[in-house]
Design brief:
43% of the residues lie in helices and 10% in strands. It is of the alpha/beta class. The strands form six sheets. A five-stranded mixed beta sheet has the order 2-1-3-4-5. It is globular.
């Protein structure tokens, strides 16, 4: 029996050609109308129908909701009635097949809603429809022009049209607002956001800081399991017969090759092997001729730089129309023609006429950087982040556990990085960071090189001194006067001669570097020293009100960055770039800063900066003191320093205010201190101590303590920004968790009636009010507590039995890291006129415990910090420092049978 054909319902519309599709679209439209019954806010998108293509921010569901709320229509498919296509990125195939519908960024919708009116979509076009042979006419966008204006500019060339607009602005009493996306200045309310969204330097600095914080998070949260290392070791089998080279310390330097270009070529594989550069400008020639101003500015530039060849060559052969857009990155094919990173596009096009420029891909850079760091984190957490595409890695343990040689490991890790990220990288290996970095230079491009110990000096002899870190133009000039240009020249030079010319420390460091010696270890915990927001492009103000408005916006930006780190600041610096007196008003680079004088001023109040309004008010006062004309400003920046963690510091105050905790701690310390005595005397004046004998029972005659000048809190900042989800084949769940947001750790909160009012009254007003607010202390409770404490003090003390020492001595610092202890010590120094002996010994006992736990790297950082701070204080604080040294050295001798090299050369009466 044959299969019976299904009867069609002639009334459902499906019998027609395309009927199903038509019915589906109709159904989706009806669903949208049903969903649009939500409360309508406005009709600004009346007559607008959008279709979202790909991933956008905000996402498609959110855009659908916004269109329903504001009178628009949302299409799931592109129809003839669709007016706009919304997307953030499109592949090359879709670009080629793109129709005539305008392709607009989602910001067009969100910003139109924020302004309460629909904005000209041409400012938000993602792609235009012109070909190479038909470039876009660069008309300025004029908001709501009059009818007569439209008629007068019809059928006029772009040059004439522009001229008429300018003349009408001068002659007509009614000013026409002219805005252009390509010519925004700082007076535009949206300038700051757009500037940072398109600034490569902002991206590089931001990502660099984020990955340094990320490494800290990874190390703090890691459970010791490395999936990548275990898999690699499993493929090797028995690793007992390890090679001799794997027993020494091996530092690896990873650097992605032409990072920006490599990411750009992922979407343009047809350009591989061609000269490519990344820059904002698309052409090497500008529309306007600025020869006169450029000649004057270039002459001033060379004069200020002392006619240095490197500086002069940067602006050489640039005429009045050559583009001064900087090249952020260029391929090796372009470098063969003489093109370099940082070169102006106009000069690069002269050297390489076939140079192709690509736009920036900020999201692509972030994605590849995340994959890079995640890949390495699957093998080790001994990472020092340098930037988004560069890092140092101590791979000693990897080589020992897997049994791989350096060459085998380099081949493996480079292959994995290339496979996961789609971008090539180069690796260099050496016994220290200097050797590893210089080895990478030989490995490039897309290679690897191991600088072994037996060839280090020979290899270094040909290295130019300019390649050494820390050797700048001033040092190079001094060395050139001595006839020294390479590391080999320094190797055969006299140390005394170099020290007499460069200084004792710089001369010694230079000799070590010339031999491939670098005593600086990898820094896994890099701390944020400052937070700033600076702009030196597009700064043009026509009135003081425009400058105040911009300064207020910049204040909110820098304060939001401070909030993102979870820290607070006590110091603000305003930085200004002011046009030099003889510099031309019109700069060589369009809207650039030109030749400027740099001015700065810092607040001295030392008060906590608690809001964006405080930032603005402080910056406003500093600007009025600097008295710089707003019309000559070419750069504005706000920097916040003296950073500290509010949670840790506040709870540390609570610790210091709890009487019972202090008394219990002192009793236990009295027992433990009986076994802690100075072991050996040391001669006074020695720069590096072994064990120091301080003067016992020395009266503290100094009523006033000194304070370190310009001391800064260098707490590490934890970024609250989330990370993208990363490739699952690379990492396990443990590593992925390391990329999550770190929670703040707070100390236990003391009971409010355990607070010592005598100490509370001595605190600064802002801190005192904060404690009263935090513990919800009422005035009545303050009076009752005061009377209670007085009556308690008048009662005869009961004789208490000595406490038995516990297995583990009491210490309020036992569960804190050094980064969390440092602000507590800073607060202790600021609060106390003379250090209390019990407090000093309590801190020292914790350092002794670190010595017993073999945490030498932490101790080195601790005493380097303490010496810097205590060096500017008075003798009683120096005595406290010596006490800490003695107790700590006791732990060193007990653990290692030797002492730690600690600087004690204060040069005062205590020595």
């Amino acid at each position: 029996m044959g299969r019976r054909k299904k009867d069609f319902n002639t009334s459902d519309g499906f019998e027609e050609w395309g009927g199903y599709k038509k019915a589906k679209v109709s159904k989706l439209d009806e669903q949208f109308k049903d969903e649009s019954k939500i409360v309508k806010i406005s009709d600004i998108f009346q007559g607008v129908a959008i279709m979202v293509n790909g991933i956008t921010r905000p996402p498609a569901d959110e855009l659908k909701k916004l269109m329903a709320q504001h009178g628009g229509v949302y299409h799931m498919y592109q129809l003839s009635s669709t007016t706009h296509i919304i997307c953030s990125n499109l592949p090359t195939v879709k670009i080629r097949n793109m129709g005539t519908k305008p392709v607009v960024k989602p910001a067009w919708i969100t910003e139109s809603i924020s302004l309460g009116k629909i904005i000209d979509f041409r400012r938000y076009l993602l792609y235009t429809h012109q070909s190479i042979s038909q470039p876009r006419l660069d008309f300025k966008v004029i908001d709501k022009p009059s009818t007569s204006m439209n008629q007068s500019t019809t059928n006029i060339s772009p040059e004439k049209s522009t001229k008429i607009c300018v003349e009408s602005e001068v002659k007509s009493p009614k000013k026409i607002e002219v805005t252009s996306r390509s010519t925004k200045t700082a007076s535009d309310p949206n300038f700051l956001e757009e500037f940072y969204n398109n600034s490569r330097l902002h991206l590089i600095s931001t990502l660099g800081a984020e990955y340094k914080q990320l490494v800290c998070q990874i190390r703090d949260k890691h459970d010791g399991f490395f999936l990548g290392r275990k898999k690699l070791a499993a493929t090797r089998g028995n690793t007992t017969n390890m090679q001799q080279e794997n027993r020494e310390t091996v530092i690896m330097h990873i650097d992605m090759d032409c990072f920006f270009v490599s990411v750009g070529l992922k979407s343009r594989p047809d350009l591989i092997g061609k000269p490519v550069a990344i820059a904002h400008a698309r052409t090497a020639r500008t529309a306007n001729d600025n020869t006169e101003n450029r000649s004057l500015e270039f002459a001033m530039y060379e004069e200020r730089n002392g006619n240095i060849a490197a500086g002069a060559s940067r602006v050489a052969n640039l005429d009045g129309r050559a583009s001064m857009s900087e090249i952020a990155s260029c391929s090796y094919e372009a470098r063969k023609c003489g093109v370099k990173n940082g070169m102006f596009l106009g000069r690069a096009a002269q050297l390489c006429p076939d140079l192709i420029t690509l736009p920036y891909d900020f999201e692509g850079y972030k994605e590849v950087s995340n994959l890079l760091y995640q890949t390495i984190a699957s093998y080790t957490v001994d990472i020092e982040a340098v930037s988004c595409d560069e890092m140092y890695v101590d791979c000693t343990e990897i080589l020992r556990e897997t049994g791989l040689s350096v060459s085998e490991w380099a081949t493996h890790v480079r292959g994995e990085i290339t496979a996961i990220t789609g971008c090539p990288c180069s690796t260099g290996f050496g016994a220290n960071r200097l050797q590893a970095r210089l080895a990478t230079r030989k490995a490039k491009p897309n290679g690897q090189f191991h600088l072994k110990a037996d060839i280090v000096e020979d290899y270094m002899s040909d290295i130019p001194l300019s390649d050494l870190p820390g050797v700048g133009r001033a040092t190079l000039a001094k060395l050139a006067n001595l006839g020294l240009t390479t590391c080999g020249d320094v190797q055969i030079s006299s140390l005394k001669c170099l020290q007499s010319e460069l200084g004792a420390k710089v001369g010694e460091t230079l000799v070590d570097q010339a031999k491939g010696i670098d005593k600086k270890p990898l820094n896994y915990y890099q701390e944020r020293k400052s937070i700033s927001a600076e702009i030196n492009y597009g700064i043009r103000f026509k009135s003081l009100e425009e400058f105040w408005s911009f300064l207020q916006t910049l204040s909110h930006e820098v304060y939001n960055r401070l909030l993102d780190t979870g820290m607070r600041s006590r110091c603000l610096t305003l930085k200004l770039m002011v046009r030099a007196a003889t510099a031309p008003v019109e700069t060589a680079k369009f809207l650039g800063h030109g030749i400027c004088d740099n001015l700065s001023k810092t607040t001295s109040s030392n008060q906590i900066i608690g809001s964006a309004d405080v930032v603005f008010n402080e910056a406003k006062v500093l600007y009025e003191k600097l008295n710089a004309p707003f019309c000559d400003l070419r750069g504005v920046g706000i920097q916040l320093t003296k950073l500290e963690k509010p949670g840790n510091v506040d709870n540390a105050l609570g610790k210091f205010l709890v009487k019972k905790s202090e008394e219990a701690g002192r009793k236990i310390r009295d027992i433990s201190n009986e076994t802690t005595k100075p072991l050996v005397n040391i001669t006074k004046g020695n720069a590096h101590s072994k064990i120091v004998t301080k003067k016992d029972d020395k009266p503290n005659n100094t009523p006033k303590r000194g304070r370190p000048k310009g001391s800064k809190n260098m707490n590490k900042s934890i970024s609250n920004k989330g990370k993208k989800s990363l490739n699952k084949t690379v990492q396990n769940n443990t590593i992925n968790k390391l990329f999550e947001k770190k929670k703040n750790v707070f100390l236990p909160t003391p009971k409010k009636m355990d607070i010592d009012l005598n100490v509370l009254n001595e605190l600064p007003e802002d801190i005192r009010n904060q404690i009263i607010k935090e513990y919800e202390i009422t005035p009545l409770e303050l009076i009752q507590n005061n009377e209670k404490q007085k009556s308690t003090n008048n009662q005869p003390k009961r004789q208490e039995k000595p406490l038995k020492p516990k297995k583990e001595d009491y210490s309020p610092f036992s569960k804190l890291t050094w980064e969390e202890i440092r602000p507590i010590i800073k607060h202790w120094i600021e609060r106390e006129t003379v250090p209390d002996k019990s407090d000093t010994e309590m801190i020292a006992e914790h350092f002794k415990k670190l010595a017993l736990e073999r945490k030498i790297e932490t101790l080195t950082r601790v005493f380097n910090f303490l010496f810097r701070v205590f060096a500017s204080l008075d003798c009683p604080w120096h005595d406290a420092y010596f006490t800490m040294v003695n107790i700590t050295q006791g732990g060193m001798v007990a653990r290692y049978g030797n002492v730690l090299a600690i600087n004690t050369n204060f040069g005062c009466c205590c020595m």
